[in-house]
């Protein structure tokens, strides 16, 4: 790279708009959305979609709720033409959906485009030509007047072709391609010349689509350009201003949002930001950004996983795991402090028991887009106790006391460091069972049977049978409760000294055959902390098991 890039690249000039209003505006309604997945998205693919893929994509867009869909570039070839005319002929377009096609400003291409739409109830024909200085100079070698003439000539053909098919409700869109790098007054002049030909009305406005064909500046400059255009275009009530941001600087979404604040009525983009080079603006991100501000985008992404899979299949391109809202990893925390905050957020949510979403680090409730909470927390060597506890709670219904969480997380940390990989829910469960001697046959103190009764002085008497290294033994003890009874029986029969420091229990709601879990924190004869965990059908048996589990560790 150059040490002084200013010799090669020039900063984009500001727009002279000192009284700009867009910075104080907010987005209060969704725009008219247009998906150009089947056109701008498709033309950028390594393998453009065949008819089967295009049809699947089209049906998905309809299901999501897109009402305007650019279905292709009919004059590009037989695949495009046949798909578009097939769609029209087969009545596959719902009454509330309007298809759009793109054409260069050349007679034969425009005629072909109209031909592909023969029989359509309604359609938008989209005409474009590039207007900015570099394209005028390099691509067309024409001056301003000639470039305007290309647009005007194309508009006339549009008008005349539409008149030949009066049964279709025709709408027109004109794009001064490369708008964002063109002189504003020239784009305006060309657009108004096109309006002179097409004579839009308030009932049937023309769509003037203002593309950032190549994103070349910070998004505030695009917003200035849009506000300037909206203020200066004549007959504003006969115009729908449309945005078409690309993402070369990585700010396509910001540009679209600021452009909407600047007065645009409509946005063109693709799902997951597919499209030329770095892509078109992502409709999923834009829609979900509105949604998480409490504004319905009128697009339905409730089944995000299916939408991702279908887009990946049709585009033959992966959706990035970190893609906003949709990526595989974006609702997941691996790191301890994030996991801790999320876990607390869910607990606070449950305690409040209202509908407000307020969970740290999670801007969206994953359930709203059809995901469950399983993947919200995943465990690796960066994780902490909260994350491990969350996985056990979600997967097995265990609610570990906080001090046990800390105890167990050390074991998990060691395992994660040793294995150098993510630990799944089963890895964690196996580690938990091993650490607290659950389910496997311990050499000592496996419970076979027990009974509890009360002595005349009110103390409780515990009698039971346990397996001790394969031999069945009867034990009994007295205490104020079941746990002290078991501890005293163990002390009397085996001399296992345990001091119970903390005990807790809860009913389980999922994951295992057990219906109750008990946790006991003890100190042994050496003053070391030992934990016991018991799980069983009823809480009393679970507590006995918890004490025996601790005794097994202490013996
Ligand atoms: C920003 C965008 O995304 S615009 C959409 C781009 N999409 C596509 O190009 C996909 C479909 N395209 C195609 O199938 C073909 O390019 C076609 C059928 C449109 C045209 O094919 P060809 O006739 O072979 O021309 P080619 O692809 O080389 O295009 C370049 C020619 O079009 C001219 N041209 C470019 N844009 C326009 C326009 N909007 N109006 C009129 N002429 C134009 C160029 O000046 C050039 O002309 P020249 O050959 O006289 O120098
Ligand atoms: C044809 C126009 C709208 C286009 O795709 C672009 O400028 O990116």
UniProtKB/TrEMBL annotation:
Mg(2+) binds at residues 40, 244, 246, 280. Its EC number is 2.3.3.13. Keywords: Acyltransferase, Amino-acid biosynthesis, Branched-chain amino acid biosynthesis, Cytoplasm, Leucine biosynthesis, Magnesium, Metal-binding, Transferase. Its cofactor is Mg(2+). Residues 31-305 form the Pyruvate carboxyltransferase domain. Pathway: Amino-acid biosynthesis; L-leucine biosynthesis; L-leucine from 3-methyl-2-oxobutanoate: step 1/4. Its main location: cytoplasm. Coiled coil: none annotated. It catalyses: 3-methyl-2-oxobutanoate + acetyl-CoA + H2O = (2S)-2-isopropylmalate + CoA + H(+). It comes from the Bacteria. Residues 439-555 are annotated as: Regulatory domain. GO terms for molecular function: 2-isopropylmalate synthase activity. It holds the Pfam family HMGL-like. It is found in: Cytoplasm. Catalyzes the condensation of the acetyl group of acetyl-CoA with 3-methyl-2-oxobutanoate (2-ketoisovalerate) to form 3-carboxy-3-hydroxy-4-methylpentanoate (2-isopropylmalate). Homodimer. Belongs to the alpha-IPM synthase/homocitrate synthase family. LeuA type 2 subfamily. PANTHER family: 2-ISOPROPYLMALATE SYNTHASE, PTHR46911. This is 2-isopropylmalate synthase.
